[in-house]
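Side project, low priority. Logging it here so it doesn't get lost.
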Amino acid sequence: MARLFNRLAIKELARIQAATYSTKKADHWSVLKRKKTHMDKALNHFDEFYGNVYGKSWESIRTALLMEEHKYMAVVNSFSDINRIKAELESQGAMNLRTIYEIYKEHIDANPPKSNKKKEKGRKAKSRMESVISNVATSLVQSHYPTDYESAPTSLNTNKDEDTAVTDQGLQPVEMKSIESNLNEITLDENRIVHPNASMSGLYEFVPATKIKGMEDWVLESQHYGYYKEGSGFSVNIEKEAVLAFPEYLNVYTFEQNNDSDFPSPKKGSTGVLDYYLLDGASVLPVLALDVQPGDAVLDMCAAPGGKTLSILQTLMPNIMVANDIQKSRVNRIHKVIDQYVAGIGEWEKRLFVTERDARFIDDKDMFNKILVDVPCTTDRHVLHSEDNNIFKPQRIQERLKMPELQAAILTNALKIISVGGTVVYSTCSLSPIQNDGVVGMALKKAWEETNSVMIVKDMSEALNPLRCLYEFGNFGLKYGHIAIPTLENNWGPMYFCKIVRIR
């Protein structure tokens, strides 16, 4: 009996020790570190980066982004029972965005502003933005060196003598050359090849290198910030645009500020298609900026899932509408939206096309006079709420860091193929100034170097003023475009957009 008791006691002691070890193991720093999600990584990145860029505003933007539910607008389907749908939406308390715009525009026209304080605030914000980007880039370059490494560089230039000169004389302008001339001058620098048996301590002498043997696809993280600066010195004319045009048949409904009511799920009408499409309230802004007119030939370069393409179709104005994306799965999402909202409408069968091409290499020059370039981006809201295919996964770090390069290539191609007099609208759902103004500046410069075409950028500040009752248009040093930032009162966005017109 005593022997049995001892055996049971030993088993119980072993169980308690195992449980204690398991608990300690679960609390170990290495385990806790592994528990960090991709959403956490995204939030940490945004806190470090956007906290500097947006200053005190970041706290409220962050709170809005982290809310589980955000606000939508309803785009009425012009191929269904328009009058019935509008009446039902208005009975729920929703208002037509066009009506809101017209009412507030009349009020603004009758009471013009008398102060120039906003201009001065914008100039200060621009200076702060450039300083923040410069500091972040420097910090990232230095982070690649060990803490005890002497004289870690403060820029991408690793020549010590030249670094000293830069420190003494301040930042010097860099000569910008055309892409073609740069390609002709590229040679293999054998001194930068790192052999497998070489000591890793010597690697720091070559970081940041443009390429390392055996790591052809590697990207230095600080290059992510280079797109903000590289095209910043390029000069482009900016013209003011006074009015935002609302097409007659584009009916977009929203609830007023501080009203977070949900639209019910759309139902099918008498024509067999759904009544309305729900999309983020800021996503309609690039469509309005495109200013679609009767007879336009429109290309949506990166169209999936298809909400903006559908919104353009609701205007009933395009003579040709092409919705393109690069992957079969994404193209299938466009087809699904078309099937739900446009199927059976015979007149569009010869005018609406869905294609599967890489937007960087679409060569249909002078075929389109309106191009929407809603590029792949870090999708700032999505990455804070979903682990699925999160861009901050370690497996996607190269894709994330190369994103500005991809975005600039897509926009550059759009600027090259747009017809003279045509309009390109570039947009992202990111708060990043690199992916936004940085990419626009780079693309404008590349397009000019490669085609000698002349562009103008539209300053839409005045045109957007009547919508400030619904949108917070952040003025954070933007040079080219506009950004609608999330707020607790109207939690949609972020959405950056820039309107560019080719005049030669």
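Brief comment: The chain is about 40% helix and 15% strand.
Revisit when time allows.
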